[in-house]
Amino acid sequence: MTEIWRFIYSGNKAPSYNMALDEALLNWHSNGTIPPTIRFYGWNPATLSVGYFQQVEKEINLEKVKENKLGFVRRPTGGRGVLHEHELTYSVIVSEHHPAMPASVTEAYRVISTGLLEGFKELGLSAYFSVPESKQEKDALKNPRSSVCFDAPSWYELVVEGRKIAGSAQTRQKGVILQHGSIVFDFDVDKLFDLFHYRSERLRERMQQQFLKKAVAINELREKPVSMQEAVHAFKNGFEKGLDIILEPYTLTAKEEKEVQQLAKERYESDEWNYRR
């Protein structure tokens, strides 16, 4: 019998709320109060999120974040800086011990990302998984040169025509996998690269050019721009097909909503959390 997972489409939310809800879903699933869950959401305002281990002072140009009127939040997951603007963001919350989830992080990543792969196919794009093969590619994964997330595909990242099309990050806490990531419709590359510090202007230019060779957004590959509604529909179907599940829409109760708001305020709006490293 096909397993039923929960599906939440939150619409556009504040950065602190988005990260708080992902964490709350992880906690609730760990406690056994909710089944595995897939959530789609957007950002209001557009936001720069940084990985759990990033050093904000050193890597991020906070003046430019303010100048562009962007939200700012630290994720509970690793990885590098992501500008969440023209995109659909997804998160998957599932137990590490779920029968469909391999023990290895990269293999679990591949299984979850099969849902994304099927979603891109629904939009008419021939996406495939990247597998770093050469020593040079594998070394690049261990020592990323850039603070920008889409700079290079890593294991089982999704690629179209040789360029990375989705960026994801994963954490495992309390026996639960949280994987979330960006399905990008359009890049504003100048704005994105303004948000980071570089040793020199020449280095920035070189990295920006490399980025354009390595990353691609959905609308670059389609004649007709994708709408949010179309993307939600395609990736919901994609996850159902890729993970062989049924997604049942769910709305948070007032009690759950209150818990998320409290976590957003206490953790994800606090300077201590966002700027601490």
Automatic annotation (TrEMBL):
Residue stretches making up the BPL/LPL catalytic domain: 32-247
Signal peptide: none
Any single biological process term in GO: lipoate biosynthetic process
Keyword check for Transmembrane: no
Pathway(s) served: Protein modification; protein lipoylation via endogenous pathway; protein N(6)-(lipoyl)lysine from octanoyl-[acyl-carrier-protein]
SUPFAM superfamilies linked: Class II aaRS and biotin synthetases
Catalytic activity: octanoyl-[ACP] + L-lysyl-[protein] = N(6)-octanoyl-L-lysyl-[protein] + holo-[ACP] + H(+)
Lowers pKa of active site Cys (site feature) positions: 164
One Pfam family, short name: LplA-B_cat
GO molecular function: ligase activity; lipoyl(octanoyl) transferase activity
Enzyme class per UniProt: transferase
UniProt keyword terms in alphabetical order: Acyltransferase, Ligase, Transferase
Assigned EC number: 2.3.1.181
Catalytic residues (positions): 149
Coiled-coil features, chain-numbered ranges: none
Family the entry assigns: Belongs to the octanoyltransferase LipM family.
Task performed by this protein: Catalyzes the transfer of endogenously produced octanoic acid from octanoyl-acyl-carrier-protein onto the lipoyl domain of GcvH, an intermediate carrier during protein lipoylation.
Quaternary assembly: Monomer.
Other noteworthy facts: In the reaction, the free carboxyl group of octanoic acid is attached via an amide linkage to the epsilon-amino group of a specific lysine residue of lipoyl domains of lipoate-dependent enzymes. The reaction proceeds via an octanoyl-thioester enzyme intermediate.
Protein name listed in UniProt: Octanoyltransferase LipM
Protein's organism: Shouchella lehensis G1
